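Quick one: structure tokens for this chain, please?
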Amino acid sequence: MFVHYSQTLFGPTAMKKLLYFLLFSVALFSCDKDYVRIEKIRIRGQIGSGAMSAPAMSTRAPDAGYSLADATKVLIFYGNEYEMVEIKNDGSFSGRAPLGSASCLVFLTSDNQFVGNLFAGGCHLLPLVAMDKNVTSIDLSTLSLSGSRVIPANDPIGTTIMLTDKELAFLTQVDKYYEALASNIDMNKDGRPDVQDGKRIELYQNYDFRGGIVGTMNSNPYVNSGTEINLNQYGIHLNGPNSILDNTDNSVAENARLSGPAGNPHNDIQSENCYINNKEFKLNFLRRGFDQETHQQYYLPFDEGIYTLSLDSKTFSFEYKTVDMQDYLIFPVPTLHIDDSNRLISITLSYQLTDGSEINPRHLMSSGIDLRIADMEFLTSPNAEFDQEYDYYSITLKNPIDMALVNGLSLSYFDLLGNQYGVHWQTP
């Protein structure tokens, strides 16, 4: 699916600190993943004998917190799907997650209290990418708890999951949402993980930026840097299943309200283009500023903290984290191929981060590339990362386009963590 991006001036305040709100899902908009048919990786682990023999919570001081001895199950979730597995009496567990997904392992008590989540390779998530094709399972070996981080003795990142330093830096930079996992796993505060009831509200971020100038057969592409990128972001976005709602009239979405952060709330949060379809609701919240010199509006950042969503006479709360994405953008860099009749016939792509480091798109992206030229869209498979035949590096047009109509193009994609990007390129 391609989302149309408006060209709005990005204010200097927002450029300094881009808000990044991570949705741990690769199932956004109409790009739902069919996890049933996707190969899954077995994930095994073992809580150490020392942890298993530690005193239970009921025999410790209330302020001691939970230990791994209190964990009785592991919630493995990816998108809006999950697998709940029991921790056996000997401390072992075994579950599965889809190949190509960004999965999270959450350790829970018998009454669904949060103990901690897996922390591997500096990430609060487990990216099941960049593995040998013969890998069918991952053994985390013995686990230990440090704060709320569950640390494996056998860290698969760097041994089984072979990311480059730059790719790993991208993932560790953008997974701050999981530092707030204890708060966000149960947004409706009913004592159960939302994903377990099929009532999880997804939160995600859209990014919009200028890539530079396309390459041609006679010239190399020019990739923007620094302020040339003009990075823009679009507030806080939420969507969830209609099963959460008692009333699915569109007015319910239109009347949704977001407030926060707690203690120092913004007084200018606005909703825009909120609606309900036959499957889910979609909510968009923005803060706007206005530049008196250019007479253009721009988007203001949201501060970190606890936010409350009021929807259909219900309330949901979540913790919002920020991160600077300026140096961690993925550029799909296009080169145009033109025939003797001056018609665009194909586009080849390379992929790099802001600093020019090349990356493998299969390691960091959860969709194919969607292309827009003028008013024409060329869509690709939303499950591209699970299709080993999908070509990330070439787009062939079924119907060539006269170059007189091509004054630029936009490329859209989802990263591995479910955030959407629109990258705009000029022609020479």
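The first helix runs from residue 12 to 16.
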